[in-house]
Specification:
The complex is a heterodimer of chains A (207) and B (218). Chain A is of the alpha/beta class. In chain A, 24% of the residues lie in helices and 31% in strands. In chain A, strands 1, 2, 3, 4, 5, 6, 7 and 8 form an eight-stranded mixed beta sheet that branches. An eight-stranded antiparallel barrel of chain B has the order 1-2-3-4-5-6-7-8. Classes of the chains: A alpha/beta (207), B mainly beta (218). Strand 1 (34-39) of chain A pairs antiparallel with strand 4 (103-125) of chain B, so a sheet runs across the interface.
Chain lengths: 207, 218
Amino acid sequence: MKYFRYAGFALLLGLIASCTRDPLSDLSPEESQVFITNRDPGANFQQYKTFSILDSVLIIGNQGRGTSLTDMDITFLTSVVRNMQALGYTYVGPRDNPDVGINVAQVRNAYLNVVSQPINPYLGNYWGGFGYGNGFGFGYPATFSYYQTRENYWYLEMIDFKNPDNQNNQFDVIWSAEIRGRGLFDTEYLENMVNSVFDQSNYLRLN
Amino acid sequence: MKIIPLLVVLLGTSLSVCAQQNPQLYNIPTPFERYSHYQIIARGGAAIPMGPFATGYIDKSTLENYSIAVDWILQKPFSVGLELGHTFFSKRIPRATYNIDGQDISAVQTRTIKLMPLQGVVNLYLGTTNARIRPYLQLAAGGSLVDYTLYYGSLGNQQQSLKFSYGAGVGSKFLFKKDGSIGADIRVKYNQTALNFDYIENGVGQLNATAGLFYRWW
Protein backbone atom coordinates (compact mmCIF):
# COMPACT_ATOMS: atom_id res chain seq x y z
CA MET A 1 0.00 0.00 0.00
CA LYS A 2 2.78 2.33 0.96
CA TYR A 3 4.66 1.62 -2.26
CA PHE A 4 1.52 2.22 -4.32
CA ARG A 5 1.19 5.57 -2.67
CA TYR A 6 4.75 6.57 -3.54
CA ALA A 7 4.46 5.16 -7.05
CA GLY A 8 1.27 7.16 -7.60
CA PHE A 9 2.94 10.29 -6.33
CA ALA A 10 5.92 9.79 -8.61
CA LEU A 11 3.61 9.17 -11.56
CA LEU A 12 1.71 12.39 -10.91
CA LEU A 13 4.94 14.35 -10.63
CA GLY A 14 6.06 12.91 -13.93
CA LEU A 15 2.76 13.84 -15.58
CA ILE A 16 2.98 17.39 -14.30
CA ALA A 17 6.52 17.77 -15.56
CA SER A 18 5.95 16.33 -19.01
CA CYS A 19 2.54 17.54 -20.15
CA THR A 20 3.03 20.46 -22.47
CA ARG A 21 1.51 20.35 -25.88
CA ASP A 22 3.25 21.85 -28.87
CA PRO A 23 1.84 25.39 -29.13
CA LEU A 24 2.61 25.53 -32.85
CA SER A 25 0.96 22.26 -33.85
CA ASP A 26 -2.02 24.10 -35.37
CA LEU A 27 0.02 26.70 -37.25
CA SER A 28 -0.46 26.51 -41.04
CA PRO A 29 2.63 26.91 -43.28
CA GLU A 30 1.37 30.34 -44.29
CA GLU A 31 0.96 31.40 -40.66
CA SER A 32 4.41 30.07 -39.84
CA GLN A 33 6.10 32.34 -42.37
CA VAL A 34 8.01 35.34 -41.08
CA PHE A 35 8.97 38.28 -43.26
CA ILE A 36 11.84 40.38 -41.97
CA THR A 37 13.01 43.52 -43.74
CA ASN A 38 15.83 45.94 -42.96
CA ARG A 39 16.72 49.24 -44.52
CA ASP A 40 19.62 51.61 -44.39
CA PRO A 41 18.04 54.53 -42.51
CA GLY A 42 20.31 56.98 -44.39
CA ALA A 43 19.30 55.85 -47.87
CA ASN A 44 16.98 58.00 -49.96
CA PHE A 45 15.23 55.59 -52.30
CA GLN A 46 13.81 58.35 -54.47
CA GLN A 47 17.21 58.79 -56.17
CA TYR A 48 17.13 55.33 -57.78
CA LYS A 49 15.36 54.75 -61.06
CA THR A 50 16.71 51.55 -62.61
CA PHE A 51 17.46 48.11 -61.26
CA SER A 52 18.85 44.80 -62.34
CA ILE A 53 18.79 41.36 -60.80
CA LEU A 54 21.17 38.40 -60.58
CA ASP A 55 20.33 35.79 -63.24
CA SER A 56 20.18 32.92 -60.79
CA VAL A 57 19.66 32.24 -57.10
CA LEU A 58 22.73 32.06 -54.87
CA ILE A 59 23.09 29.19 -52.47
CA ILE A 60 24.96 30.23 -49.34
CA GLY A 61 25.49 28.83 -45.86
CA ASN A 62 27.48 26.03 -44.31
CA GLN A 63 25.88 23.35 -46.46
CA GLY A 64 27.81 24.32 -49.58
CA ARG A 65 27.81 27.24 -51.95
CA GLY A 66 26.78 27.69 -55.54
CA THR A 67 23.98 28.89 -57.74
CA SER A 68 20.65 27.43 -58.66
CA LEU A 69 18.11 28.09 -61.38
CA THR A 70 15.20 25.71 -61.04
CA ASP A 71 11.64 26.50 -62.12
CA MET A 72 10.97 27.58 -58.55
CA ASP A 73 13.95 29.97 -58.63
CA ILE A 74 12.76 31.46 -61.92
CA THR A 75 9.27 32.00 -60.44
CA PHE A 76 10.83 33.72 -57.44
CA LEU A 77 13.10 36.01 -59.52
CA THR A 78 10.26 36.91 -61.90
CA SER A 79 8.11 37.81 -58.97
CA VAL A 80 10.83 40.11 -57.57
CA VAL A 81 11.14 41.85 -60.96
CA ARG A 82 7.36 42.32 -61.13
CA ASN A 83 7.26 43.81 -57.63
CA MET A 84 10.12 46.23 -58.37
CA GLN A 85 8.40 47.37 -61.57
CA ALA A 86 5.17 47.88 -59.64
CA LEU A 87 7.08 50.15 -57.26
CA GLY A 88 8.17 52.35 -60.17
CA TYR A 89 11.66 51.04 -60.99
CA THR A 90 12.76 50.29 -64.54
CA TYR A 91 14.39 46.96 -65.30
CA VAL A 92 17.70 47.17 -67.16
CA GLY A 93 20.40 44.62 -67.96
CA PRO A 94 23.29 44.18 -65.54
CA ARG A 95 25.68 45.92 -67.96
CA ASP A 96 23.43 48.98 -68.41
CA ASN A 97 24.58 50.74 -65.23
CA PRO A 98 21.62 49.96 -63.00
CA ASP A 99 21.16 52.24 -59.97
CA VAL A 100 20.51 49.26 -57.72
CA GLY A 101 21.16 45.54 -58.00
CA ILE A 102 19.21 42.76 -56.36
CA ASN A 103 20.66 39.50 -55.12
CA VAL A 104 18.43 36.59 -54.24
CA ALA A 105 19.84 33.76 -52.15
CA GLN A 106 18.79 30.62 -50.38
CA VAL A 107 20.57 30.29 -47.07
CA ARG A 108 21.11 26.69 -45.96
CA ASN A 109 22.65 26.15 -42.58
CA ALA A 110 22.73 23.23 -40.20
CA TYR A 111 23.89 23.40 -36.59
CA LEU A 112 24.46 20.81 -33.92
CA ASN A 113 23.57 21.95 -30.43
CA VAL A 114 23.72 20.55 -26.96
CA VAL A 115 20.31 20.67 -25.31
CA SER A 116 20.51 23.54 -22.87
CA GLN A 117 19.19 22.62 -19.47
CA PRO A 118 17.50 25.55 -17.75
CA ILE A 119 19.83 25.27 -14.80
CA ASN A 120 22.95 26.35 -16.67
CA PRO A 121 22.39 30.10 -16.91
CA TYR A 122 21.80 30.52 -13.18
CA LEU A 123 25.14 29.18 -12.13
CA GLY A 124 26.69 32.43 -13.25
CA ASN A 125 30.21 32.61 -11.91
CA TYR A 126 29.61 30.04 -9.18
CA TRP A 127 32.49 27.88 -10.32
CA GLY A 128 34.76 30.88 -10.55
CA GLY A 129 36.03 30.03 -7.08
CA PHE A 130 37.82 27.02 -8.52
CA GLY A 131 39.99 29.26 -10.61
CA TYR A 132 38.21 28.73 -13.91
CA GLY A 133 38.01 31.98 -15.76
CA ASN A 134 35.09 33.41 -17.67
CA GLY A 135 34.46 31.88 -21.03
CA PHE A 136 34.48 28.36 -19.69
CA GLY A 137 31.37 26.39 -20.63
CA PHE A 138 30.49 22.85 -19.70
CA GLY A 139 31.51 19.98 -21.92
CA TYR A 140 28.91 17.27 -22.38
CA PRO A 141 29.66 13.63 -23.12
CA ALA A 142 28.34 12.27 -26.41
CA THR A 143 25.64 10.26 -24.64
CA PHE A 144 23.80 13.45 -23.68
CA SER A 145 21.03 14.80 -25.88
CA TYR A 146 21.80 16.87 -28.89
CA TYR A 147 19.51 18.41 -31.38
CA GLN A 148 20.24 19.46 -34.87
CA THR A 149 18.74 22.58 -36.28
CA ARG A 150 18.53 23.28 -39.93
CA GLU A 151 17.56 26.56 -41.40
CA ASN A 152 16.65 27.08 -45.00
CA TYR A 153 15.41 30.48 -45.90
CA TRP A 154 15.25 33.07 -48.63
CA TYR A 155 17.40 36.15 -48.47
CA LEU A 156 17.15 39.22 -50.73
CA GLU A 157 19.34 42.27 -50.74
CA MET A 158 19.43 45.53 -52.67
CA ILE A 159 22.83 47.01 -53.50
CA ASP A 160 23.50 50.65 -54.17
CA PHE A 161 25.52 50.88 -57.42
CA LYS A 162 24.82 54.60 -57.77
CA ASN A 163 26.87 55.68 -54.75
CA PRO A 164 29.84 53.32 -54.50
CA ASP A 165 31.89 53.56 -51.32
CA ASN A 166 35.20 54.25 -53.07
CA GLN A 167 37.07 54.66 -49.82
CA ASN A 168 36.43 51.06 -48.80
CA ASN A 169 36.02 49.67 -52.30
CA GLN A 170 32.54 48.40 -51.65
CA PHE A 171 28.91 48.78 -52.62
CA ASP A 172 26.52 49.34 -49.74
CA VAL A 173 23.52 47.15 -49.07
CA ILE A 174 20.59 49.51 -48.61
CA TRP A 175 17.76 47.03 -48.14
CA SER A 176 17.50 43.37 -47.23
CA ALA A 177 14.77 40.86 -46.57
CA GLU A 178 14.55 37.41 -45.05
CA ILE A 179 11.71 34.97 -45.52
CA ARG A 180 11.58 32.20 -42.93
CA GLY A 181 9.16 29.55 -41.82
CA ARG A 182 7.62 26.46 -43.37
CA GLY A 183 6.48 25.90 -46.96
CA LEU A 184 9.16 28.26 -48.31
CA PHE A 185 10.00 26.04 -51.24
CA ASP A 186 6.41 25.30 -52.13
CA THR A 187 5.44 27.08 -55.37
CA GLU A 188 1.97 27.63 -53.92
CA TYR A 189 3.34 30.26 -51.49
CA LEU A 190 6.19 31.81 -53.53
CA GLU A 191 4.24 34.68 -55.08
CA ASN A 192 2.65 35.72 -51.79
CA MET A 193 5.98 35.55 -49.96
CA VAL A 194 7.71 37.90 -52.39
CA ASN A 195 4.74 40.28 -52.43
CA SER A 196 4.76 40.39 -48.62
CA VAL A 197 8.34 41.62 -48.24
CA PHE A 198 7.77 44.38 -50.79
CA ASP A 199 4.37 45.29 -49.34
CA GLN A 200 5.86 45.94 -45.92
CA SER A 201 8.65 48.08 -47.44
CA ASN A 202 6.50 50.89 -48.69
CA TYR A 203 9.41 53.36 -48.53
CA LEU A 204 10.82 51.70 -51.67
CA ARG A 205 7.98 53.13 -53.75
CA LEU A 206 8.98 55.86 -56.24
CA ASN A 207 6.68 58.84 -56.53
CA MET B 1 -0.20 -17.63 49.63
CA LYS B 2 0.08 -13.84 49.63
CA ILE B 3 -0.31 -13.83 45.89
CA ILE B 4 -4.03 -14.70 45.83
CA PRO B 5 -5.33 -11.50 47.46
CA LEU B 6 -2.97 -9.58 45.21
CA LEU B 7 -4.46 -11.22 42.10
CA VAL B 8 -7.98 -10.51 43.36
CA VAL B 9 -7.14 -6.84 43.78
CA LEU B 10 -5.57 -6.73 40.30
CA LEU B 11 -8.61 -8.39 38.74
CA GLY B 12 -10.89 -5.95 40.52
CA THR B 13 -9.04 -2.92 39.27
CA SER B 14 -8.83 -4.17 35.67
CA LEU B 15 -12.55 -4.95 35.67
CA SER B 16 -13.34 -1.48 36.88
CA VAL B 17 -11.08 -0.05 34.15
CA CYS B 18 -12.98 -2.13 31.55
CA ALA B 19 -16.28 -0.94 32.92
CA GLN B 20 -15.17 2.66 32.58
CA GLN B 21 -13.78 2.26 29.06
CA ASN B 22 -16.53 0.23 27.45
CA PRO B 23 -19.27 2.89 27.36
CA GLN B 24 -16.78 5.38 25.85
CA LEU B 25 -15.53 3.20 22.98
CA TYR B 26 -17.58 5.18 20.48
CA ASN B 27 -16.67 8.55 21.89
CA ILE B 28 -12.89 8.45 21.79
CA PRO B 29 -11.23 10.72 19.20
CA THR B 30 -10.31 9.11 15.90
CA PRO B 31 -6.65 8.87 14.90
CA PHE B 32 -7.09 11.90 12.61
CA GLU B 33 -8.11 13.93 15.64
CA ARG B 34 -5.52 12.47 17.94
CA TYR B 35 -2.43 12.63 15.74
CA SER B 36 -0.93 14.97 13.23
CA HIS B 37 -1.32 13.36 9.83
CA TYR B 38 -0.59 13.77 6.13
CA GLN B 39 -2.64 14.70 3.16
CA ILE B 40 -2.03 14.59 -0.57
CA ILE B 41 -4.14 16.76 -2.89
CA ALA B 42 -4.35 16.77 -6.67
CA ARG B 43 -5.98 19.87 -8.13
CA GLY B 44 -6.94 20.97 -11.63
CA GLY B 45 -8.98 23.73 -13.19
CA ALA B 46 -8.88 27.11 -14.81
CA ALA B 47 -6.18 29.77 -14.60
CA ILE B 48 -7.26 33.29 -15.46
CA PRO B 49 -4.60 35.91 -16.36
CA MET B 50 -4.80 39.03 -14.21
CA GLY B 51 -3.40 42.55 -14.13
CA PRO B 52 -0.62 43.85 -16.41
CA PHE B 53 0.15 40.31 -17.57
CA ALA B 54 -3.38 40.01 -19.00
CA THR B 55 -3.34 43.43 -20.65
CA GLY B 56 0.22 43.25 -21.95
CA TYR B 57 0.79 39.64 -22.99
CA ILE B 58 -1.90 36.96 -22.68
CA ASP B 59 -5.51 37.55 -21.66
CA LYS B 60 -6.78 34.09 -22.55
CA SER B 61 -7.66 31.71 -19.71
CA THR B 62 -6.34 28.19 -19.73
CA LEU B 63 -7.44 24.81 -18.43
CA GLU B 64 -3.90 23.52 -18.54
CA ASN B 65 -3.45 24.26 -14.88
CA TYR B 66 -2.90 21.60 -12.25
CA SER B 67 -0.94 20.92 -9.12
CA ILE B 68 -0.13 18.36 -6.49
CA ALA B 69 0.37 19.17 -2.83
CA VAL B 70 1.44 17.29 0.26
CA ASP B 71 0.37 18.72 3.62
CA TRP B 72 1.28 17.90 7.18
CA ILE B 73 -1.89 18.52 9.20
CA LEU B 74 -1.02 19.58 12.73
CA GLN B 75 -3.05 19.25 15.91
CA LYS B 76 -3.66 22.96 15.78
CA PRO B 77 -5.82 24.57 13.09
CA PHE B 78 -2.74 24.71 10.85
CA SER B 79 -1.07 22.65 8.21
CA VAL B 80 2.21 23.14 6.39
CA GLY B 81 3.12 21.61 3.08
CA LEU B 82 4.62 21.80 -0.38
CA GLU B 83 2.80 22.30 -3.63
CA LEU B 84 4.12 21.70 -7.15
CA GLY B 85 2.11 23.25 -9.95
CA HIS B 86 2.01 23.61 -13.69
CA THR B 87 0.29 26.28 -15.75
CA PHE B 88 0.55 26.86 -19.48
CA PHE B 89 -0.89 29.98 -21.10
CA SER B 90 -0.91 30.63 -24.83
CA LYS B 91 -2.48 33.03 -27.26
CA ARG B 92 -2.31 33.45 -31.02
CA ILE B 93 -2.17 36.98 -32.47
CA PRO B 94 -3.07 37.36 -36.19
CA ARG B 95 -0.39 38.52 -38.61
CA ALA B 96 0.92 41.99 -37.86
CA THR B 97 4.11 43.94 -38.52
CA TYR B 98 6.40 44.61 -35.58
CA ASN B 99 9.32 47.00 -35.60
CA ILE B 100 12.10 45.48 -33.53
CA ASP B 101 15.52 47.17 -33.43
CA GLY B 102 14.83 48.92 -36.73
CA GLN B 103 13.74 45.71 -38.46
CA ASP B 104 10.21 45.24 -39.75
CA ILE B 105 8.96 41.76 -38.89
CA SER B 106 5.67 40.55 -40.26
CA ALA B 107 4.51 37.44 -38.43
CA VAL B 108 1.77 35.58 -36.64
CA GLN B 109 2.67 35.70 -32.96
CA THR B 110 2.10 32.74 -30.69
CA ARG B 111 2.58 33.98 -27.15
CA THR B 112 3.22 31.31 -24.54
CA ILE B 113 4.34 31.08 -20.97
CA LYS B 114 4.80 28.00 -18.83
CA LEU B 115 5.03 28.27 -15.05
CA MET B 116 6.09 25.48 -12.72
CA PRO B 117 5.90 26.80 -9.16
CA LEU B 118 7.19 24.87 -6.16
CA GLN B 119 5.84 26.62 -3.10
CA GLY B 120 5.80 26.19 0.63
CA VAL B 121 2.19 26.39 1.80
CA VAL B 122 0.62 27.30 5.16
CA ASN B 123 -3.11 26.67 5.69
CA LEU B 124 -5.28 28.03 8.47
CA TYR B 125 -8.40 25.89 8.97
CA LEU B 126 -11.70 27.11 10.29
CA GLY B 127 -13.37 23.78 11.23
CA THR B 128 -12.18 20.82 13.29
CA THR B 129 -9.98 18.14 11.80
CA ASN B 130 -12.84 15.75 11.20
CA ALA B 131 -15.47 18.27 10.07
CA ARG B 132 -17.20 17.17 6.88
CA ILE B 133 -16.77 20.71 5.52
CA ARG B 134 -13.54 22.40 6.49
CA PRO B 135 -12.85 25.86 4.99
CA TYR B 136 -9.31 27.18 4.95
CA LEU B 137 -7.19 30.23 4.19
CA GLN B 138 -3.88 29.72 2.47
CA LEU B 139 -0.58 31.52 2.02
CA ALA B 140 2.14 30.25 -0.29
CA ALA B 141 5.63 31.33 -1.37
CA GLY B 142 8.43 29.74 -3.31
CA GLY B 143 10.16 29.59 -6.66
CA SER B 144 8.77 29.11 -10.11
CA LEU B 145 10.46 27.75 -13.20
CA VAL B 146 9.29 30.12 -15.92
CA ASP B 147 9.54 29.35 -19.62
CA TYR B 148 8.67 32.42 -21.66
CA THR B 149 8.54 31.60 -25.35
CA LEU B 150 7.27 34.07 -27.90
CA TYR B 151 7.02 32.68 -31.40
CA TYR B 152 7.15 34.83 -34.50
CA GLY B 153 5.74 32.34 -36.99
CA SER B 154 7.86 29.29 -36.32
CA LEU B 155 10.81 31.21 -34.86
CA GLY B 156 10.92 31.24 -31.08
CA ASN B 157 12.33 33.78 -28.68
CA GLN B 158 12.74 31.89 -25.43
CA GLN B 159 13.80 32.74 -21.91
CA GLN B 160 13.87 30.24 -19.09
CA SER B 161 14.40 31.42 -15.56
CA LEU B 162 13.76 30.69 -11.92
CA LYS B 163 11.62 33.39 -10.31
CA PHE B 164 10.11 34.19 -6.94
CA SER B 165 6.41 33.43 -6.72
CA TYR B 166 3.82 33.83 -4.00
CA GLY B 167 0.09 33.54 -3.57
CA ALA B 168 -2.91 33.54 -1.28
CA GLY B 169 -6.12 31.61 -1.50
CA VAL B 170 -9.34 30.47 0.12
CA GLY B 171 -10.85 27.05 -0.19
CA SER B 172 -12.65 24.24 1.51
CA LYS B 173 -12.29 20.54 2.01
CA PHE B 174 -15.28 18.19 1.82
CA LEU B 175 -14.92 14.74 3.39
CA PHE B 176 -16.87 12.13 1.45
CA LYS B 177 -17.81 10.25 4.59
CA LYS B 178 -17.54 10.79 8.32
CA ASP B 179 -14.03 10.08 9.51
CA GLY B 180 -13.10 8.97 5.99
CA SER B 181 -9.78 9.46 4.30
CA ILE B 182 -10.92 10.69 0.90
CA GLY B 183 -12.57 13.97 0.01
CA ALA B 184 -12.90 16.85 -2.39
CA ASP B 185 -11.15 20.19 -2.39
CA ILE B 186 -12.27 23.49 -3.93
CA ARG B 187 -9.93 26.43 -4.00
CA VAL B 188 -9.56 29.91 -5.48
CA LYS B 189 -6.01 31.22 -5.34
CA TYR B 190 -4.29 34.32 -6.60
CA ASN B 191 -0.71 33.75 -7.64
CA GLN B 192 1.97 36.24 -8.61
CA THR B 193 5.29 35.38 -10.25
CA ALA B 194 8.03 37.98 -10.56
CA LEU B 195 9.13 38.43 -14.16
CA ASN B 196 10.39 41.32 -16.23
CA PHE B 197 11.18 40.21 -19.76
CA ASP B 198 10.14 41.41 -23.21
CA TYR B 199 6.36 41.96 -23.15
CA ILE B 200 6.05 41.24 -19.42
CA GLU B 201 7.10 44.10 -17.20
CA ASN B 202 5.23 43.57 -13.98
CA GLY B 203 5.19 39.87 -13.33
CA VAL B 204 2.63 37.20 -14.05
CA GLY B 205 -0.63 37.46 -12.11
CA GLN B 206 -3.10 34.62 -12.30
CA LEU B 207 -6.27 33.51 -10.54
CA ASN B 208 -6.50 29.74 -10.22
CA ALA B 209 -9.95 28.24 -9.71
CA THR B 210 -9.49 24.55 -9.10
CA ALA B 211 -11.29 21.45 -7.92
CA GLY B 212 -9.40 18.50 -6.57
CA LEU B 213 -9.34 15.28 -4.61
CA PHE B 214 -7.43 14.58 -1.45
CA TYR B 215 -6.38 11.51 0.44
CA ARG B 216 -5.26 11.62 4.06
CA TRP B 217 -3.41 9.11 6.16
CA TRP B 218 -1.63 8.92 9.49
